[in-house]
Each structure stands twice: as C-alpha cells, then as structure tokens.
Amino acid sequence: xxxxxxxxxxLLLAVCMLVPxxxxxxxxxxxxxxxxxxxxxDFVVGIDEPVTLKDGTSRPLINFDNAATTPALKPVMEEVxxxxxxxxxxxxxxxxxxxxxxxxxxxxxxxxxxFVGLNPKDLTYTMFYADNTTDGLNKLATALINDKSDIVxxxxxxxxxxxLPWRERCSAVGSKVIYAEVDAQGRIxxxxxxxxxxxxxxxxxxxxxxxxxxxxxxxxxxxxxMAHQYGAxxxxxxAQIVAHRAFSMLGETPExxxxxxxxxxxxxxSPYGGGAVVGLNSVISGHQPAFYGGGTVHLVRxxxxxxxxxxxxxxxxxxxxxGVVGMGRAIDLLQQVGFDSIAEHEQKLVRRMIDGLxxxxxxxxxxxxxxxxxxxGVVTFNTSDANSLELASxxxxxxxxxxxxxxxxxxxxxxxxxxxxxxxxxxxEGCTDFKTPGMIRVSxxxxxxxxxxxxxxxxxxxxxxxxxxHNKELDAKELWDDVMFPEY
Length: 488
Hints:
Elements: H1 6-16, E1 50-52, E2 58-60, E3 62-63, H2 74-84, H3 96-115, E4 125-130, H4 133-144, E5 151-155, H5 164-173, E6 177-180, H6 190-199, E7 202-208, H7 220-229, E8 233-237, E9 260-264, E10 275-280, H8 281-285, E11 297-300, E12 305-307, H9 321-337, H10 339-358, E13 363-365, E14 378-383, H11 388-397, E15 401-402, E16 404-406, H12 411-418, E17 439-443, H13 450-470, H14 476-480
Parallel strand pairs: 3-15, 5-6, 5-7, 7-8, 8-9
Antiparallel strand pairs: 1-2, 4-10, 9-10, 11-12, 13-14, 14-17, 16-17
C-alpha cells in the first residue's frame, strides 16, 4: 500500500473532527449512553420491528438464531454510516478521503490484535482481513497445505468451514485430514487427540473455540500445548467464541499459545461482512494463498510477477471498508458491555432453557445438561412428538420465534449426537425429505431475555400439542407441499 505520512494523517483526522463524520470520535466524552448488559436491547437494530405471522397477527420477532448471524448494534450502524461519508479507495487513491479511509483500515488491525490478547507492537503476530471465517480458513488452507506431508488433525466437532477447506486442499496435494473423536455428550476426547498426534506426523491441528451445535468450548490452550509438544501448529476457528467470551491467543506459557485464530464480524453484531485471520508473522509471510489480484504485487511484467509478502498478499482486491469499520466498533462495544457480564447473563438463559425443555415430556436435550460452565449460549433439542422441521416452521410461522433446524453445517457431529452411523446418512443426501433427521437449535445473543425463554417454552408446548392433534388428520404430502427447505 502507498506509504502515508502519519503526521499528516493525524492532522487530517483532527480536521475531520470539525465535520459530522467524525462526531463519533468524541462520543464517549460527550455523554453518550454507555452500553451495558442491562440496556443492550436499546441498541439493537430491528429488535422491535414487527413480523406478520400466518394467522395475520403481528409481533416483534424473538431471535434465537444468533449462532448463524447477529443483528447490527445501532452504534455499529451509525459508525459505518458516518465513516462512509469520507470513504475513498484504500491504499491506492490520492485524495483526502482515500487517506482517511486507509488510516481507519490500518489502525483497525491494531484493535483486532489487542482484541485477541496480543500487543500490536510485538511483531510475532500479524493479521489480514477476510470476508468471514470460512473465507479466512480457506485462505489459510491454500497457503499452508502444499505437500503430501502436510497432515491436518481436526476433530469431529468442527463446522464445515473448519473441515472442508482442509479436506479439499489436502486431497489436492496428496495429503490427508485425520480426526479426533468426541464422546457421547459431544466433548472432544483429548486422549484420542493426543493418540493421533503420537501416531501421525501432524503439521497442523485445527479446532473450534466453541461449537455451533452444543456450545462446548474445548480447552484450546491445552490442545495447543499438545500440538506443540509433537511439532504441530494450531489453528482455532473463533467464529462462535468472539461474541460470548474474552479470548486470548496467549496461554499461561508459550507452549499454550495459539498460532492462528480466525473469526467473523457478522457473529459479533456487525453484519457488514468482514472478518480477520491473526497468525504467526513468520508463517504468514512465508506462504501465499491461492487468491490473486490487485494490491498483492510489487511488480508485474510480461512473464514475471513479483508478489508482496505478509498480510497484504492475502488481501487481493478492494477492501470491505464498511466491514472493517463495523468490526472495529463492535469490538469496542463488546468490551464495553464486558465479557464477564455477557457470560453470566448467558449462563442464566442456558440454564433456564435447558430446565424448561427437560420439563416437557418426550424432549431430548443434546449434550451435558448439568455442567454448563464450558458452554456458550447454544442449546439443541428434539421431541419424539413432532418432526423437527415441522416444529421449527410452526414456531416461526405462528409463534414469531427464529431458531435453526437441521444439522447446522456440522453434519458428522450432529449424526454422532443423534446416534446415526455414517453410512445411514447416504439416503438423506440433499436433505429435501421432511423425514431427514435434524435438531432444533436455540442460540442466544447478549440482548435475549429470560422472558423470551419463557415465551419460547410456552409456544413450544402449544405447537407440539397442535402437531400431535392435527398430523393425525393430514397426510405428509399435504403438510409439506409448500415448505421451503433451508440450508441444512
């Protein structure tokens, strides 16, 4: 990128304070309300927006699908809108707006590094922007896996985003992905993970920081220590942790440090795209992803390309400025609310939901329902009295409650929890039969309330009872002719 005079840029930012676009720079000292866990609902975009149900009534949606994506926070939206008034091409243009936007883009890197417990001045780590967690993991996979000896150890807990990129890249170079198993409740079996490390010359271990199915938080620093002991590096999928718990890439000892960490902004109340990959500078600078274009080169000649090194080579094309602005502001707000407060609030919701579900006859709750300390706000369940697809559909259509139904882009993990063998799943390819097995997932945001949990449980009882009574009178074809089947 074009070198910027930081003295000049500082003067420019000061000048920008004189125009409305930069009012937010003084917001915290100008008496703006501080966002807390108690008033967070005042700051959620669309929280009171009514939806029209199939019976013709309207009510605000109860959103229990936050593991998929989160609504914007108003200060995030306002920050994006304000900064767009001064938007210009990043790192390329010769204009005051370009310099302003480039400054924000570069300064947010330091905020991201600090967010994951690192010192931005310590060049051990660097970061590059990604479109989302999936994009970041794909870029890492194409950069890091180059030889048949590059064996990857994953777990059966992983989301497809932290499984398929490694499978495909390893297949392309003649390597392989091996897996550590989970127990009956869905927790990673650490002994099996260490066994795989002992028996295979693993190059990379990749693991989620929190499951999108059960909410379990594996001890990634423990896994890092094991990986390093056997000469491997560790990659952590942070998509489901960043809005729920404070996360540091640094362990209690250097052996427990995380080598790479990947996350998305849309999971943390900034749905404008954008995400980040933080990793070891020496490794990122020594590799290049299969992703090419403008901004990644020093020089292009007729037959020779001289590529840059480091983070910039992973950021081909025009950057997502709104995504970066939103991510930076979301980081500020989550830290302002406080992760201790978030965790305490979330635990209350999880406990209330699980207790309420277990009180309903013929309901199965997946995972450990007693020890909740290692879970973020995700609860999955089924009932033998109703098809999960029909039940989730009616909860939405007639109850105004958003959930997720299916296998949540974590098919092998869900099948294990439900007790299905791998070969049984072949008949369900395409997932377009309403008999395809799946779970219903409730996932909490920081703005959800205990009253919403109680409403959910009441509506759930009503809809289960309706299904029990009416499905005796209607055949399956009549029920499902007009049903859409979302991504499974």
